[in-house]
Amino acid sequence: MSQEHSMNDLSIIKKQMKQKQRTLFRKKFFSNKLALTGTIIMSVIIMFAILTPLIISTSPYTLDTANRLLPPSAEHLFGTDNYGRDLFSRVMYGARVSLVIGFSVALLTSIFGTIVGLYAAYFKKLDSLLMRTSDGLMAFPAILLAIAIMASLGANLANVIIALTIVFTPLVARTIRSSALIVKEQTYVEALRAQGANSTRIIWSNIFPNVISPLIVQATFIFADAIIVEAALSFLGAGIPAPEPSWGNLLYDGKTVIFNAWWMTIFPGIAIMLTVLGLNLFGDGLRDLLDPHNKSKK
Amino acid sequence: MLNFILKRILSLIPVLFVVSVVVFLLVHITPGDPASVMLGPEASPQEVAKLQEELGLNRPILEQYVTWVGDIFKGDLGTSLFMKQPVLTAFLEHLGPTFSLAIMAQLFAIVLAIPLGVLSAKFRGSILDQTFMGISLVGISVPSFLLGLFLILLFGVELRWLPVAGYKPLEAGLDVHIRYLILPAIALGSMQAALIARMTRSSMLDVLSANFIKTARAKGVKEFIITMKHSLRNAFIPILTIIGQTFGTLVAGAAVVETVFNIPGIGQLIINSVERRDFEVIQGVVLLIAVSYVTINLVIDLLYGIVDPRLRVGKR
Q1: Which among A120, B62, B108, B123 is least surrounded, fewest beta carbons within 10 Å?
Q2: Does B26 touch chain A (CB under 8 A)?
Q3: Among A136-150, A265-279, B32-46, B94-108, the least confident range
Q4: What is the pTM of this model?
C-alpha cells in the first residue's frame, strides 16, 4: 500500500516537474522579444490563410475587365490586377499556396534528412556514400537546381514540392549527421551497444530524441527558404502556373505593369517579406532556446 | 602545403561525379519521352525518332551516360536545339553580363558589410549595433528579385534617377556600364551584405574577447590598430568562408535578378531555355555553374592555407 502510494507521489512529482519545465520554456521563449514578434507575425499569417475562404467573399479568379488596374480603395483593399481580379483576395489565397509549400517541404525534408543523417552518422560505410551525394547536390545553387528540376518535371504545385525537397534534404541531413555524430560518441550509446541493443533501436530511441532540437530549428529556416524559392520559381514562370494565385506569379503579373500599378508589386512583396521575416525571427528564437551552443551572440 | 593541395583536389572527384549524374538525370526524369517533350506536341513521330537517334536516347542509359561524360571531357556540352549553336558558345556569350553583375554585387556587399560588422562588434549592444543588426535581419528576409522590384518602383518609377532595365556592355563606357548595373547590384548584393555583416560581427566578437587582445591593450597598442590589424585579420577566415560559400548563390541569384532588370545574362539564357524546353542548354549551363561553384570553394579552401598556416597541417 505504502509503496503504491510513493509510486503515485513520484509520478505526480514527475508530472509537476515536466509542467514547470514547460512553463519555464514558454517564459524564456516569450521573453525574447524578437521571437515573440516572429510568433505573432506567423500566427496572424497562418490564421489569415486558414480563414480566407470564410472571410473573403470575392473569388480570386473572377475576371472583371471593366475594373482593370484599380488602385486600392474601400471596395478593393489592395486594388485590382490587370484582369480586374481583386488583389486582396489573390494575396490571401497566395498565402495558402506559400504556406502549404513551405510546410510540406519542411516536413518532407525533415523526414528524409533525418533518415539519411542518422544512418550516415551511425554506419561508417554508408557515411561517405551518403555525404558525397549530398555534397554533390549542394554544389548546385538552390534556385538553379530547382529551376532545372522544374523544367524537366513540368510546372505545378506537387512538382514544386518535389523539387524543393530534393534541393533542401541535404541541408537537413548534414545538420542531423553532425549532431548525431556527437551523440554517438557518448558513453551510454557505447554501453547500449555493449549490452547488445540492435542498431535500429539505438538509432531511433536513443540517438534520434537528441537531435530533435537542431532538426526543428533547421526545419523552420527551410520553411522560410522554401517560400522564397517558390516565389522566385513562380516569378520566373517555372513554379505555380496561372491562374492559381501564388505570391511569385502575382509579382510576375505586377512586373508587367510596374509603371502603372505599384500595388501589384508592393502587396505581394510585403506578404513575402513579412512571412520570411516572421519565420526567421521565430527560428532565431527557437535556436537560442533549444540549441544554446549555437546561440547568436547578443 | 603540396600534400594539402593534392588531397583537397582529389576530394573533388566524388563530388563532381555526383554532380554529373544529377545533371545527366535531369533529362531522364521528364515524364514521358524527352525527345517528344523537347519537340512539342506538333512534332511528327518521324521527327521524334530522328531526335531520339541524334541524342542517343534509344541506347542503354549507362552507355548514354558514358558517351555524355566523354563528350564533356572533349569540351562538347551539346548543341542547343533552338539556337542551333553549341551550348558552350551560348554560355560564353551570356557570361559577361552575369559576371559583371555578380562582381559588382559582391563588391557592394563587402564594402558595405565589413565596416558595418566591425562597428557593430566594437559597439556591441549600442543603438548603432541594434540598428545595423535589425536592418540586416530584414535584409536576409527580402529575396533579391523582390528587392529589385522595390528598387525599380522607388528609383525608376518615382524618382527616375537610374535606368530600370537593360544592360550596356563595357564598350559603351565604364560609367554607362556601371550606371545600368547599380540597381541590379544593390538588389543582388543586399542579402549577401546582410550575411557578411552578421558573420563579421560574430567573428569579431569572438576575437575581441581573446586574451591576446587584452595583452595588446595592456601593452598600449592603439585601439584602431587592435581592431584593424590584430582582430580583423584573425576574424577573417569565417568571413572569407561565407563570401566563398555564398558566391555560388550569388551567381544563381544573378539569374533571377537578371530577369527583373532584363539583363541578357546566364539567367535569361536558362529561363528562355526552360520555356523552350531546350534541355541540352539547361544541362550544360547547370553543369558549368555547379563545377565553377565547386572550383571557387576549392580556391577559397586553398586561400585559407595562406591566410592561416595552421590549417595546412589540419585534419583535412
Answers
A1: B62
A2: yes
A3: B32-46
A4: 0.84
Show Cβ contacts of residue A215 under 8 Å, excluding neighbours closer than 6 positions. A110, A113, A114, A172, A175, A176
Residue A203, all three cell numbers:
538509432
Going by the DSSP 8-state scheme, the letter that residue B268 receives in this structure is H
User: In sequence order, which residues have a C-beta less than 8 Å from that of residue B159 and are 6 or more positions away?
Assistant: none
- How far apart, in whole angstroms, are the C-alpha atoms of residue B265 and residue A168? 26
Q: Which of A37, A134, A137, A152 to mutate to test the interface with B (most CBs of B within 10 A)?
A: A152
Kindly provide the ipTM of the predicted complex, given to two decimals: 0.83
Nearest to A82 by CA among A63, A69, A96, A99: A69
A140 touching chain B per CB within 8 A: yes
What's the rounded Cα separation, in Å, for the pair A191 and B2? 42
Q: Does B289 touch chain A (CB under 8 A)?
A: yes
**Which candidate, A34, A73, A80, places its Cα nearest to that of A59?**
A80
User: Which band of pLDDT confidence, cut at 50, 70 and 90, is reported for residue A292?
Assistant: low
pLDDT at residue A73 tops 80: no
- CA B189 from chain center: how many Å? 11
DSSP state of B81: T
CA–CA distance, B217 with B223 (Å, rounded to integer):
7
pLDDT digits (tens, 9 = 90+) for B179-223: 788 889 999 999 888 888 888 888 888 888 888 888 888 888 888
